Amino acid sequence: MDSITSTAQTWLSDFFDDETKKEIQHLIQNDPEELKERFYKDLEFGTGGMRGVMGVGTNRINKYTLGKNTQGLSNYLKKIYANQEIKVVIAYDCRHNSDTLARLVSEVFSANGIKVFLFSELRTTPELSFAVKHLNCHAGIVLTASHNPPEYNGYKVYWTDGGQIVPPQDDAIIAEIDALSFEDINFNANQNLIQLIDQDVDEAFFEASVSKGSFDAKGKDDFKIVFTSLHGTSITAIPEVLKRAGYSNVTIIEEQAKPDGAFPTVKSPNPEEPEALKMAIQKAEAVGADMVVGTDPDSDRLGIAVRNLEGKIELLNGNQTMVLMTKFLLDQYKQKELKGNEFVATTIVSTPMMAQMAKAYGVECKTSLTGFKWIGKMIKDFPDSRFIGGGEESFGYMVGDFVRDKDAVTSTLLACEIAADAKANGSSFYEALIDAYVNFGFYKEKLISLTKKGISGAEEIKQMLIDFKDNPVESVQGSKVIWIEDYNTSIAKNVQTGEEKIIDLPKSNVLIYETEDGTRIAARPSGTEPKVKFYISTNAKLERAEDYKVVNSRLDAKIEGILSELNL
Fold first, then answer.
1. Which of 280, 320, 420, 538 has a CB 3.0–4.6 Å from the CB of 228, allowing a cystine?
2. CA angle at 146 for the pair 142 and 148, rounded to the nearest 5°
3. Catalytic residue selected from 74, 98, 146, 234
4. Is position 146 annotated as part of the catalytic site?
5. Domains contained in the chain, CATH given
């Protein structure tokens, strides 16, 4: 009997429910390959917590894997906050089973004597992050799989500051979880410790979002927005926040407004994908809207489409929106007074333009590993510094520190403020971005994601990254590679001079090549999906806005050449 079957048979004990046992027995007898997929490993925490396909098995999201997580977290909280009344807050998104899994997680916490605030209905991830501090909780949980396909769900853990768990908490919590067997889960709920929450927290969150995202923009009455929640949670927050901020010309895509974990109108509920916003863009063209906003299921990512120089609606990428949002915030701070302790934040695979722009304003740009948990950690690690805003290329942005995760609610309002004010002054969001390119350099990026599912896919991803390292790129489009940054070894090496520098960030499976002309190529596996990702960044000088089309075409051609060289 192999180890996988042996592991699966432990799920046939009396501890597991009859439905689970029946499915396990069926897999053992009839589908050994599927059994292997479900039990060949334990589902692990990645950059965004635990995320995976729903179903029975150790490599799946179910009541037992999440119950074990919650039991381990309960044990850790009771160690750290001994002799205190421990409180947690729990939210969930639109996905299949999110509501029942959230209730189950609440019951395990309560069975361990922990007070639980449970949102009565689905809510956004940024509101969960906000609620941790607002309710003075020790931790928070959101049941979500972000923009993953419908068969996925997930479990993200937040700490007392409202940010996702980071070292040393994450390793300590994982150690507690790993020390448990499934039979150690306490499912005997104490319903008296579970309190439903909704409108009071909503009100506080809406007020904070409007306060942090509003900048007295002109032209709101003449600014037309098309908004889609892509069947997700943002329908509970963004329309209300826009209304309170003074935006009355908001067209909601009704076909996508109802929360639905099947995401019936899109192939993927991911605003990074142009197809996801197709319906909203068509509506925007029909009604003459200025901007399209679409969010992912838990409302931490936002996609923005605006009118380009030809007057057509064009989807911007995460780097573009991040750059202009950050520039706008820097301008606001500069008008009021920069005190010298401010900083903005970005990640190692996002556009280098963030650092160039911050330097021009005399503001520090801190760079983290991929994932907003690291940006949240910066705020905690530097309490005497003021965080202005920051983001990453994957369509996430955070305005100030009242929420400690990417926040599509407040960021949507900020984007509208920028665009409405620009239009009132005879410009546009798109033209303001081009002006930024003139002032700070024209940086253009491209992301390539390759999906590799299952056991064989995981091995293929591993081998691709090994090959990328063991067969180093020597030049890119005729430009010599100068630096190779290996985040696995924490060493950046100048391959021309032999100079080495220590990378002062946690180790991570990321490799970055940088050439003499500033081109950057990064490779890493996704922390939450069966994907390997390649990030291409190029740049050029843009002397005048009138030269934008020519230089843009030149950078497009360069990116295509790079992809051809790398066989991507």
1. 280
2. 135
3. 146
4. yes
5. 41-197 (3.40.120.10), 203-310 (3.40.120.10), 318-440 (3.40.120.10), 442-565 (3.30.310)
